[in-house]
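Sequence in, structure out.
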Amino acid sequence: MRAKRIVVKVGSSSLTDAQGRLSTGHISRLVDQIANLQAEYGCQVILVSSGAVAAGLGKLGWHRPHITMPEKQAAAAVGQGLLIELYQKLFAERGMMIAQLLLTRSDIEDRRRFIHIRNTAETLLRHGILPIVNENDTVTVEEIRFGDNDTLGSLVALVTEADLLVLLTDIDGLYTANPRTHPNARRISDVWQITPELEEAAGGVGSAVGTGGMRTKLTAARIAVDSGIDVVVASSSEPDVLRRIWSGEPVGTRFHAHTRFTGKKSWLAYGTRPEGRLVIDEGAVRALLERAGSLLLPGIVRVEGDFHEGAVVEVAAPDGRVIGKGTVSFSDRDLRLLLGRRLAGEKLQNYHEVIHRDAMVIYAREGSYA
């Protein structure tokens, strides 16, 4: 089926020239394609655009290897205005209105803000307005950063319940090895499962003006395909690339979706960060993995971290292996109190679930949830 709602993420290297300045020509070609998808095929597009920091650095004449975090944030503040002004002008020439959404990781982690973002995006799309999303680099620090816009793109696809995520970059897909250093490397057209071998082939960091690489695209692809969203990694310089992807042509590398969960469990799996950890005994591990049970108080061995009721915590086996995470019904203080009373010989009965199965995701294999 052809996608009706598409998240397009474009990297800095696809928007800037060799000197790191915004390229009107590059951006115009992207704008033309998005406008065509909306006008000719009725697609709803959400654009996740890098380029603010690169544009600011180019405008200020600063060199990326020699800037501090405050200087990078200042460059983002300068560049974001340049970037959105250019998008505004180019889309207006094609009769389209845009809206800017600047997000941090904490916006996604908070369930109420997550829903507000979804509602805002739905309203914009319903009125034919193109949302342009970027990380709010001017205020983010390491604790609340997405880390790269590939991950941001996958989480935006999750928030907006998109059918397809397109990651446009400066290489035309995933290869069996780095094609820049291995001339015999082959492009992989279809990926049905993200394996450790694929991750090894993905290599390291990206281009000189971007923060991501093929490895970050695999991480982003895993989030999307586990939430039922197909992903295509393709070159932004490929002629008419968005229409060809939408039409189903074998462009780039397509990661095929396999729905493990939907709705709130997708958010729980990939949109949240744990605030603590519960170590459980082997009986509880078997109950969670084999019988799809809830986590009960008798199965808890140890409580780690400080958290309140409703927080997201990891669930770990006795050997420290994390097997999942979920939303707790008790604070760390109350759990420690109850464990202390049990240790003193008190029988703890009729307590509700510590983590209900509906508020839990469990690792089915290394790196993915069920």
